[in-house]
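Quick note —
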Amino acid sequence: MKRLLIILAGLSVGVGLTAGVAITGTTNTQQGAKAPVKSTITIRHQMRGCHAWSVNGSAYVATQKTTLAHGGTITFFDNDAHKLVKTSGPAVRYRPGPAMRHMSASVRVTFTKAGVYKFTTKAGEDYPGMAMKTIGEDNVLRLTVRVSS
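Predicted structure written out below.
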C-alpha cells in the first residue's frame, strides 16, 4: 500500500509540473516567435477537388493562412498551370510574373509592405491528352498572408 501512495503522489507532482511547463512554455514561445523571411507554397493537381496548395510542406488544402516578415518572399511552385491573382492588399513584386504557364513553373513574390494580402489562382487549361478525372467540385484556392511590420 505504501508503494501505491508514493507512486500516486509522484504522478500528481509530475503531472502538475508538466502542465506548468506546458503552459509557460507555450506562452514564451508564442511571444518570442518571429515571422519567417522566406516561405514556399506548392500547388498540386489532385483527384478530390482538382487543386490544393501546401505552405512549407503542410497538408494540401484549398484555404491556407501564413505569416511572413516585412520584406519577405514566398516562392510558389506549380505542379499544374496557374496564374497567381492578388485579390487584396498592398502591391507586391512578382519575379518573373504571376503566370505559371507550365508544370514545375515557379514565381517569387516579395512583400515590401506590412499588411494582409489575399490571393487566389486562375487555373490554366487542362493538358491535351490527359484524361484525369476528379471527384467533387473543383476547389477555389485561397491564401491569406499576414506580413508583420
